[in-house]
Amino acid sequence: MAIKIAQRATITDEFKQAMQQIYRGKLQKYQDEAERIKSSPRYYGEFIQRRGQAIALLRALTKDPERIDMEYTRLRTLPYTKFETVEREGYPYLYGLTKDVMIEFNGMWNMGPYGVVIPLTFFAPLRTVYASNNNSVRNWKAVQMVPMRSKLDNHRTPHHTARMPYVDDQPVSGNPLDMIPNTCWGGFSSIIYACGDECDITELFRNIYIYLCRHDPHSPLVRLSREMTEGFKFAEKVQ
Length: 239
What we know:
5-stranded mixed sheet, 3-stranded antiparallel sheet, 6 helices, about 35% helix
C-alpha cells in the first residue's frame, strides 16, 4: 500500500516578500525606538530587556535564510492549501485558503474552505503606510473570512457577517472584498490583535482557522441551531 503524504500549503514568492516587508517594518520600529532612548541607560536597558528577544528574532527572520525557511515550514503545516497576496483598489492583503472548516453545533457541519484575507495594515508597522479609513471596508481591522462555497453570503460563520454596500439600490460590486465585515472575536480578540501588533503571521493564520471552527452560543452574531441550514445554505451536515 502506497503511503499517502499530506499535501502542504504552497506559498507564493509575493507572499514571502510581503512577510519580509512586515518583519522589516517591525524591526525598524524597534530600532527607531532604541535610537530615541539610547542616551538614557536606564530606559535603554529596560527596553532591551523587554524587546531584545523579539529584535533578535526579527533580525533572524530578515537576514538568516535558514530561520525564514523554518517560518515557511511552520506556515505550510497549517490547515491551509495555499498562501498568496491579493490587491483591491490599491490595498494589499495576505490571503490564505483553508482546508474544509468543520463546526460542531448540534452535530457536525462542513462549512467548506474559507479565504482568509488580512490587510497588510493589520500589522502594526504598516498601519501608516497605506491610507486607511476607520469607517471603510479598507479599515486595518477589516479581516475577511470568505466562505468559498458562497462568497457573497451575508452570514459567513456564526460569528462573522458581512454586508455589501448599495448605491441606487445596486450592490457596489460582486467582489467579496468590498463587503463590510462585522466580527465577534470574543475570547480570540486579545491573541488576534497581539499577533498583528507583534507581526506573528503564522500564529495569526493558525488562530483564525481555530476561530473559524468554534461555535460560541453567547456571541451576539450567533445563529440559532434551527437556522443553521437556513442561515448557512452552503453548510453541509456531516452524518
